[in-house]
């Protein structure tokens, strides 16, 4: 999860830090209670939020006073880890950067005072600084225009806010880790991916490294082809708990043959390793295969970073034993259309095997999942059946 993005070309901004007086709002709060938030600035706040760019505040004011004003203006909820106080702004921006675990090159700072911008730029040269008059132009700048906006980008702020509350709760928790997991009231939903969700599936295949079984990047077109292909399952897993959504946390690409189901890819987000998502998914797949009366085969390719995934596979019982069912299945990293990225030859892909028995349901999450033993997906019409009416999950 290295976040040391290259500075050149500039990475997309992941968090914009706003000064308040005469930057976010017109006026100085200490002198005039009735500071004004221009509509154009409000549109920028809402627009950046919708693109999945987080926003924070760095202001010289009394915290309670300024926060109350942000609330009254109806925008307080848009800001995470605010720094409102009297210290140096570079220190405040650094604390924001650290709390979000972002690289300084992905942080932007906007302030009407040239001296404040200079102070931040001096101590944090990778942070991009903008004068207040640029506020209304931000939505048009390339560094504030992410390549794609997914379901999860749109709820990124909510996910971070939930994450902070969850972390606080965990720090206070005194029982076992399993007790803590149960206290979260987690709901894990596995669903057949819709067209809308393919971008978030692609992102997961890109961003997961430790918990990615092959390290193969499946671009959007390849996933789209899989989705339309009978006998293939493209599954997205989302997770939420009583604090809020985690968003999409896992992807499964499965090829169903008569005697065996071939797991082409299992990847889960490293954000949720501690919640056991990979193990729960594997157990569910094993159980589904047992119910269908088929063996489970799984591609695994060591990437140097995914040892954790190999352990999860081995722990679930997958091994190298010979079996007749291997005959009808081709290994190798490619998907339809030969996905790009770090594919390489098929020779370094191991085909792991399991004769699964029924598995117990997980005890730490409530699992909502389709029935893969339903024979219909092997025939035509999978995309229609797969499309859930409710839109995005999680
Ligand atoms: Zn077999």
TrEMBL record:
It holds the Pfam family Hydrolase. Residues 327-348, 369-394 are annotated as: Disordered. Residues 328-346 have a biased composition (Gly residues). Gene3D superfamilies: 3.40.630.30, HAD superfamily/HAD-like (3.40.50.1000). It comes from the Bacteria. NCBIfam families: FkbH, HAD-SF-IIIC. This is Methoxymalonate biosynthesis protein.
């Amino acid at each position: 999860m290295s976040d040391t993005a290259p500075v050149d070309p500039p990475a997309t901004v992941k968090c914009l830090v706003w000064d308040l007086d005469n930057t976010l709002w017109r006026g100085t709060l200490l002198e005039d209670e009735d500071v004004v938030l221009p509509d154009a600035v409000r549109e920028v706040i809402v627009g950046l939020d919708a693109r999945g760019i987080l926003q924070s505040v760095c202001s010289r004011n009394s915290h309670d006073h300024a926060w109350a004003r942000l609330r009254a203006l109806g925008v307080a909820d848009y800001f995470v880890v605010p720094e409102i106080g009297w210290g140096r702004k570079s220190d405040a921006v650094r604390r924001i950067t650290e709390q979000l675990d972002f690289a300084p090159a992905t942080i932007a700072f906007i302030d009407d005072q040239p001296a404040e911008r200079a102070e931040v730029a001096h101590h944090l040269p990778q942070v991009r600084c903008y004068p207040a008059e640029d506020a209304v132009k931000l939505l048009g700048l390339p560094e504030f225009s992410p390549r794609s906006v997914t379901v999860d980008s749109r709820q990124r702020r909510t996910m971070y806010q939930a994450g902070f509350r969850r972390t606080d709760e965990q720090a206070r928790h005194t029982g076992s880790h399993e007790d803590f997991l149960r206290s979260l009231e987690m709901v894990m939903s596995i669903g057949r991916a819709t067209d809308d969700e393919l971008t978030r599936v692609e992102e997961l295949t890109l961003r997961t490294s430790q918990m990615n079984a092959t390290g193969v990047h499946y671009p959007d077109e390849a996933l789209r082809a899989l989705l339309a292909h009978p006998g293939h399952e493209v599954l997205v897993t989302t997770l939420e708990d009583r604090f809020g959504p985690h968003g999409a946390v896992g992807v499964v690409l499965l090829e169903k043959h008569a005697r065996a189901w071939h797991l082409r890819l299992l990847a889960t987000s490293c954000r949720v390793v501690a919640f056991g998502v990979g193990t729960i998914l594997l157990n569910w797949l094993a159980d589904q295969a047992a119910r269908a009366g088929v063996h489970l085969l799984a591609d695994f390719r060591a990437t140097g970073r995914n040892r954790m995934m190999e352990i999860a596979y081995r722990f679930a019982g997958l091994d190298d034993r010979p079996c007749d069912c291997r005959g009808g299945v081709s290994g190798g990293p490619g998907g339809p259309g030969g996905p790009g990225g770090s594919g390489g030859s098929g020779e370094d892909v191991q085909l792991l095997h399991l004769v699964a028995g029924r598995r117990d349901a997980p005890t730490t999450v409530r699992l909502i999942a389709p029935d893969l033993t339903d024979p219909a997906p092997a025939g035509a019409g999978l995309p229609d059946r797969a499309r859930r009416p409710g839109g995005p999950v999680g």
